[in-house]
Each structure stands twice: as structure tokens, then as C-alpha cells.
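Try this one yourself first.
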């Protein structure tokens, strides 16, 4: 284990770090040689971190978003009582320290956590930024209010599905994998996530009590939809889901999302739908009454060959 990883392990044991940036998450899901972390510290105190995964894409070495790890990026520990006038300068100093520690790669791309707003230090170092959107219900404590804020068609789907289906917590991630294969094959496509990766992530969530797998099934035991959601101290996240195309109009996924929100209300504060930039998916998630929330995709391509290929 590198010195930085050891420091980060200790840091995560003391601080409330978002799930997808935690040491244990990276250590469980990726091989030791696949990931590392940049740490900015002063007088022995960690001020900021930037974990990353290095992948090989053909002959290129890249830092890139990973399946089922929707957010990466910078996490900063701000001094207590810091005034806003000092905050931006502090962020610049910490972020510059992190950028300097990044390894030389052909390309860098990460989706930063919602709430990270100051990407100027990256801009000044030649990085680019694209704004993306998710939908977040920021307060799920009052589930009656949450349901009232759903659009009428979503409420109708939930009620309809609730009359003909039951929701269960299951522990067989193979069910999701097999349904995903079936759906992708029907669309003449290839499901990109290997079973061992899906199992690793699910097993981590199960062992660390930070995720559940839900199914919606009818009276004939037909599984209509499957949903995997996860949580940390601040938010729950819709991580992965699938609906059997035979039952795509049954309302089963809306029922599962509603159940996940209700169950999350006993564990955390908010629910993040991991919004998509695909118009039809965005429209569906928007119906659950969450607040449209921007987050940054920050990137930089140093390889001239890769720049031409991308162009």
C-alpha cells in the first residue's frame, strides 16, 4: 500500500466521505495497481483529496469514469468558521496541489460530485468542463410530502403497480445480470458490466450495510423490475436498474423507486436519481419531483493522437 493510500484509509475512518470516494470503496472494487489518490496536506493535516482509476484504452492510459461509480473528483475539508472571502482562495490552493500530483496520462475525465462548484483552478491548468444534470430530492424525511410532489402519472403508476405486485429485498445479484443480458440482447447490444464486477459492488454494499437489491414481482412470480440503490450519510443513490421489456408498462420501476425512497428515509437525508442526459430518461426522473442539480464533468486530453481520434 502506498503512503497516500494509508493516509487516506486513516482519513476516511475519521471523516464522513461520500460513498463513491471512500477508501474502502476503491480498495474493494479495484485492484491495487488500478487506483491511486492525490492528497493535499499542510502541517500533517489533509485538506483535500482526489482519488482516481487509471485504465488502459487500447494503447492509451486514461483516467476515466467507471461503471457504477457515478461520481469522483475533488473532496475538500474546509477549516471551521472559514469566511467565504477566504474560501475560493483556499480551494484554488488545494486543487492546484492535487492537480500537481496527478500522474501523466493521455486523457483525464471525471464526473465531480454535485456541490463542487469551483472548477476555475482546473480551467487555468488547461482542463475543460461540461455541465451535466441529475435530480435530487434533498429532503426525504417526510415521505408523504415526497409522494405528493411526484407528478400525477408517477403516482398513478405506483398505485397501479402496488395493487398487482409485491416488493422484496433479495440477495441474488445474478437476477439483475441475467435480466440485463436479456434486455441488451433484445436491443442487439452488449451489456458492458462483467458479472464479477457487479457481484463485487453488490457484495461490498451488502457487507458494509450501504446498499440493497429490490425486486418487483407479480402473483405468478414474474420479476418485472430490479433495482440496486446505495447510500451514505448524506444521500441515497439509484445506482442500477432494469425492467423486463415484457412488462415495461407495468409501473414496476416507479414502484421500486418509491420503495427505495421510503427505505432510504430511515437511513439518510436525500435521494439522488443519478440523472441521465438522455431525454426520455431525464423526463422520467424529473417526474419524481427532485430538484434539477448540475454537476461538472471535467476533462483534459494531452495525447495529440487521442485528440484527433476524439475530433
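Now uncover the answer:
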Amino acid at each position: 500500500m502506498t503512503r497516500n493510500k494509508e493516509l487516506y484509509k486513516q482519513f476516511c475512518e475519521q471523516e464522513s466521505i461520500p460513498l463513491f470516494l471512500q477508501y474502502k470503496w476503491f480498495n474493494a472494487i479495484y485492484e491495487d495497481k488500478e487506483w491511486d489518490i492525490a492528497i493535499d496536506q499542510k502541517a500533517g493535516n489533509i485538506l483535500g483529496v482526489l482519488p482516481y482509476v487509471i485504465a488502459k484504452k487500447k494503447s492509451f492510459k486514461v483516467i476515466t469514469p467507471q461503471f457504477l461509480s457515478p461520481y469522483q473528483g475533488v473532496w475538500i475539508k474546509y477549516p471551521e468558521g472559514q469566511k467565504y472571502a477566504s474560501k475560493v482562495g483556499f480551494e484554488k490552493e488545494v486543487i492546484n496541489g492535487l492537480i500537481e500530483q496527478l500522474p501523466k496520462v493521455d486523457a483525464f475525465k471525471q464526473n465531480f460530485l454535485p456541490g463542487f462548484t469551483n472548477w476555475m483552478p482546473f480551467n487555468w491548468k488547461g482542463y475543460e468542463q461540461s455541465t451535466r444534470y441529475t435530480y435530487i430530492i434533498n429532503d426525504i424525511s417526510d415521505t408523504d410530502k415526497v409522494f405528493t410532489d411526484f407528478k400525477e402519472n408517477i403516482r398513478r403508476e405506483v398505485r397501479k403497480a402496488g395493487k398487482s405486485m409485491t416488493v422484496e429485498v433479495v440477495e441474488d445479484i445474478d437476477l439483475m445480470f441475467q435480466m440485463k443480458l436479456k434486455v441488451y440482447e433484445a436491443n442487439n447490444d452488449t451489456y458492458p458490466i462483467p458479472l464479477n464486477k457487479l457481484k463485487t459492488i453488490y457484495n461490498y454494499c451488502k457487507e458494509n450495510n450501504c446498499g440493497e437489491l429490490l425486486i418487483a414481482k407479480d402473483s405468478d412470480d414474474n420479476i418485472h423490475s430490479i433495482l440496486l440503490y446505495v447510500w451514505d450519510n448524506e444521500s441515497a443513490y439509484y445506482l442500477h436498474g432494469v425492467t423486463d421489456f415484457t412488462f415495461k408498462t407495468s409501473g414496476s420501476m416507479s414502484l421500486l423507486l418509491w420503495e427505495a425512497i421510503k427505505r432510504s428515509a430511515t437511513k439518510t437525508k436525500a435521494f439522488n436519481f443519478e440523472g441521465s442526459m438522455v431525454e426520455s430518461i431525464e423526463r422520467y426522473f424529473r417526474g419524481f419531483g427532485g430538484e434539477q442539480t448540475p454537476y461538472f464533468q471535467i476533462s483534459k486530453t494531452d495525447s495529440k493522437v487521442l485528440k484527433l481520434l476524439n475530433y
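Discussion: Residues 3-133+295-310 form a domain with the Aminopeptidase fold (CATH 3.40.630.30). The longest strand covers residues 45-57.
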